[in-house]
Amino acid sequence: MSKINEWNEKRKSKELFDQIKSIQSKKFSSKNICINDVNGQALTEPDEVLKRWNSYMAHIFLDTQTKRKQKMHTKSPNKTWQDVEPEPLTSEVEAAIKDLKAGKSPALDNIPAEIIKNSGEMGIKALHHLCCQIWKQQEWPEDWKLQELVML
C-alpha cells in the first residue's frame, strides 16, 4: 500500500496503475458464506445458506407470478391479454437466438447456445412454435421453472 501512496504522491501514473493492477490480479475468494434468515439470524452453514436461497427465490417467483395473475384479472373484463398482446413474432425469436452468447455453460437441459444458434431456419420455426404454444397456454413448462444457482 505504501508503494501506491508513493507513486500517487510523485504523480507517476503508469507505476501507480501497474501497482494497483498487480494487487487486483490476485484472486480473492471469500471462504465464509453468510446470509440472514427471515428472522435476521446469520446462517453460515452451507446447507442452511442453500436452503435459505432456495426459499428466497421461490418466494420472489411466486410473488411475481401472483402479481402478474392479479394484474391480468384486474384489466377490462371485455378484453383479455391476448387481445392486447399478439403472439411473439418469428423475427423476435430469431433475434433472441442471435443474441445468445456462445461459450457459456448450458442450462439444466444441457443444450449449448451454439447448437441453438446453428439450428437454422427449422430451429427458429420450432422455437417460435414452442413460444406461441406457451403464449396461448399462459403457463411455463415445468422444466423451464427449474433453475440452478451457482454460488461463486
Automatic annotation (TrEMBL):
Residues 67-87 are annotated as: Disordered. Residues 67-76 have a biased composition (Basic residues). Keywords: Endonuclease, Hydrolase, Nuclease. GO terms for molecular function: endonuclease activity. This is Endonuclease-reverse transcriptase. It comes from Elysia marginata.
